[in-house]
């Protein structure tokens, strides 16, 4: 079963509508999704059985080409990242170098060899000749010691990299040799599960979905930068390149630094993100119970911004100032304490907005669920069909997509160097944030908002999002290519 990355935030129980492609019965050949969506990335979602078939095809190819056992082919493919042709070429150049990874078949000592073995080097006993075996390296040990060795390794989660017991010997034990010594059914199953997981992890075109208890596996051609994939099972958005939650426009290295920084208690110990704030005008306590940052005090009707507590009128069409961090021009360079305070202030500025959008996303999940319920109620009451109310559902889904992108602009902005490029990014970020808040305000009041007005706001917000992503995803890709050169 295949899926493409433009299926973002699809719903398993509902419609077949896609924001970029429209209804499923439209002529998809007329839609160039790679241009419509800057995050477009072709991939497939595979089940375990499909992946096993894919791996077995490579195993069979190598086994037939080199006339080796499938078990040995697995070891070699794992070592060479499943590049069968590379192994075949290397084998033609130097067969011994390739075959050093394991034995061709289990070896039992001859009478001459057995006569030179006084005792097993591990347990210091002298079993009969038929109870000894070795890998291609020729290090013979009794079968009981091999069994104990394999059982211990399997319990520790090792599978494809189990080595010979001899000191400093790097010859690997293949599957058939291991299973010939391990008879415990539970351990055999555990070993084969570990083998499969290791094979997938070593394959450059396969990635496990990181969702809890999710069995789906992504297949794609690995590339530089943040590449969005969405699981058909749990609908989790993941970066195929690094395995982290999808993080465009921030690149993989930057998001790793940011998440590490956020997880470090020394960075956040003095910061507690409050869930309630006082109205800037009448000082009454207000709790945020929706994703929108455009707040209106229930007591004095004052409109203000939840993030900076400024008058909402200043967040209008001209500029959305509270997304920009303003450097302190009076900072004395040689004052270490002042620099430390400024660094913490800068970090908290971006962290607060990062966390605020994360909370807003969770709250908008509730909005999405309640909106779906209301639409179902209207349909059941005969007030139109799902198609009639489709625009409300699409607006909530688009809002979630836009806010998700906006959240990941803050780590990107935090690490950007001061200059014209950052000024452009912050301008686009501010424009996107302003349109998202306008859309959020209208979505939360969707049933009383004019449909044309809402759809127009959707179009503006999505254009802001795609413009920002297109500019800075291309910028990241260009920089990555330049650094390699």
From TrEMBL:
<dbReference type="InterPro" id="IPR047556">
    <property type="entry name" value="Rcat_RBR_TRIAD1"/>
</dbReference>
<feature type="domain" description="RING-type">
    <location>
        <begin position="116"/>
        <end position="326"/>
    </location>
</feature>
<dbReference type="GO" id="GO:0061630">
    <property type="term" value="F:ubiquitin protein ligase activity"/>
</dbReference>
<dbReference type="InterPro" id="IPR047555">
    <property type="entry name" value="BRcat_RBR_TRIAD1"/>
</dbReference>
<dbReference type="Pfam" id="PF19422">
    <property type="entry name" value="Ariadne"/>
</dbReference>
<keyword id="KW-0175">Coiled coil</keyword>
<dbReference type="Pfam" id="PF01485">
    <property type="entry name" value="IBR"/>
</dbReference>
<dbReference type="InterPro" id="IPR045840">
    <property type="entry name" value="Ariadne"/>
</dbReference>
<feature type="coiled-coil region">
    <location>
        <begin position="429"/>
        <end position="471"/>
    </location>
</feature>
<keyword id="KW-0677">Repeat</keyword>
<keyword id="KW-0833">Ubl conjugation pathway</keyword>
<dbReference type="InterPro" id="IPR044066">
    <property type="entry name" value="TRIAD_supradom"/>
</dbReference>
<keyword id="KW-0479">Metal-binding</keyword>
<dbReference type="GO" id="GO:0005634">
    <property type="term" value="C:nucleus"/>
</dbReference>
<keyword id="KW-0863">Zinc-finger</keyword>
<dbReference type="InterPro" id="IPR031127">
    <property type="entry name" value="E3_UB_ligase_RBR"/>
</dbReference>
<keyword id="KW-0539">Nucleus</keyword>
<dbReference type="InterPro" id="IPR013083">
    <property type="entry name" value="Znf_RING/FYVE/PHD"/>
</dbReference>
<dbReference type="Pfam" id="PF26000">
    <property type="entry name" value="UBA_ARIH2_N"/>
</dbReference>
<dbReference type="Pfam" id="PF22191">
    <property type="entry name" value="IBR_1"/>
</dbReference>
<keyword id="KW-0808">Transferase</keyword>
<dbReference type="GO" id="GO:0008270">
    <property type="term" value="F:zinc ion binding"/>
</dbReference>
<dbReference type="GO" id="GO:0016567">
    <property type="term" value="P:protein ubiquitination"/>
</dbReference>
<protein>
    <recommendedName>
        <fullName>RBR-type E3 ubiquitin transferase</fullName>
        <ecNumber>2.3.2.31</ecNumber>
    </recommendedName>
</protein>
<keyword id="KW-0862">Zinc</keyword>
<feature type="region of interest" description="Disordered">
    <location>
        <begin position="1"/>
        <end position="22"/>
    </location>
</feature>
<dbReference type="InterPro" id="IPR002867">
    <property type="entry name" value="IBR_dom"/>
</dbReference>
<comment type="similarity">
    <text>Belongs to the RBR family. Ariadne subfamily.</text>
</comment>
């Amino acid at each position: 079963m295949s899926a493409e990355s433009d299926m973002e935030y699809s719903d398993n129980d509902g419609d077949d509508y896609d924001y970029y492609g429209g209804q499923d019965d439209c002529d998809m050949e007329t839609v160039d999704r790679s241009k419509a969506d800057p995050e477009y990335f072709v991939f497939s979602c595979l089940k375990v059985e499909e992946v096993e078939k894919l791996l077995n095809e490579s195993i069979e190819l190598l086994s037939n080409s080199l006339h080796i056992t499938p078990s040995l082919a697995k070891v070699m493919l794992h070592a060479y990242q499943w590049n069968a042709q590379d192994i075949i070429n290397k084998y033609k150049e130097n067969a011994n170098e390739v075959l050093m990874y394991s034995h061709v078949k289990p070896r039992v000592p001859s009478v001459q060899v057995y006569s030179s073995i006084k005792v097993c080097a591990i347990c210091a006993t002298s079993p009969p000749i038929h109870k000894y075996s070795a890998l291609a390296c020729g290090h013979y040990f009794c079968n009981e010691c091999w069994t104990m060795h394999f059982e211990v390794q399997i319990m520790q989660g090792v599978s494809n990299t189990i080595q010979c017991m001899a000191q400093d010997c790097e010859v690997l034990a293949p599957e058939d040799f291991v299973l010939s010594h391990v008879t415990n059914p539970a351990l055999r199953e555990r070993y084969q599960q570990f083998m499969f997981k290791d094979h997938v992890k070593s394959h450059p075109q396969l990635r496990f979905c990181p969702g809890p208890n999710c069995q789906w596996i992504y297949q794609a051609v690995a590339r530089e930068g943040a590449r969005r994939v969405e699981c058909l099972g749990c609908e989790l958005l993941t970066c195929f390149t690094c395995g982290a939650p999808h993080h465009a426009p921030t690149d993989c290295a930057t998001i790793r630094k940011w998440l590490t920084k956020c997880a470090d208690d020394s960075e956040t110990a003095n910061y507690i993100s409050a869930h309630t704030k006082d109205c800037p005008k009448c000082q009454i306590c207000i709790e945020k119970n929706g994703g929108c940052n455009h707040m209106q005090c229930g007591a004095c009707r004052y409109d203000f911004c939840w993030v900076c507590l400024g008058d909402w009128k200043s967040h209008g069409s001209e500029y959305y100032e509270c997304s920009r961090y303003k450097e302190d021009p009076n900072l004395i360079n040689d004052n270490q304490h002042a620099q430390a305070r400024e660094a913490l202030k800068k970090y908290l500025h971006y962290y607060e907005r990062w966390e605020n959008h994360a909370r807003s996303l969770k709250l908008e999940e509730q909005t999405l669920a309640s909106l779906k319920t209301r639409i179902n109620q209207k349909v059941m009451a005969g007030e139109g069909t799902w198609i009639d109310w489709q625009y409300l559902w699409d607006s909530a889904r688009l809002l979630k997509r836009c806010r998700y992108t906006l959240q990941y602009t803050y780590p990107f902005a935090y690490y950007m160097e001061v200059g014209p490029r950052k000024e452009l990014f912050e301008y686009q970020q501010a424009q996107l944030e302003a349109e998202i808040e306008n859309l959020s305000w209208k979505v939360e009041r969707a049933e009383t908002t004019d449909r044309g007005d809402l759809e127009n706001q959707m179009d503006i917000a999505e254009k802001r999002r795609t413009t920002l992503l297109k500019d800075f995803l291309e910028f990241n890709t260009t920089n990555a290519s330049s650094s390699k050169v």
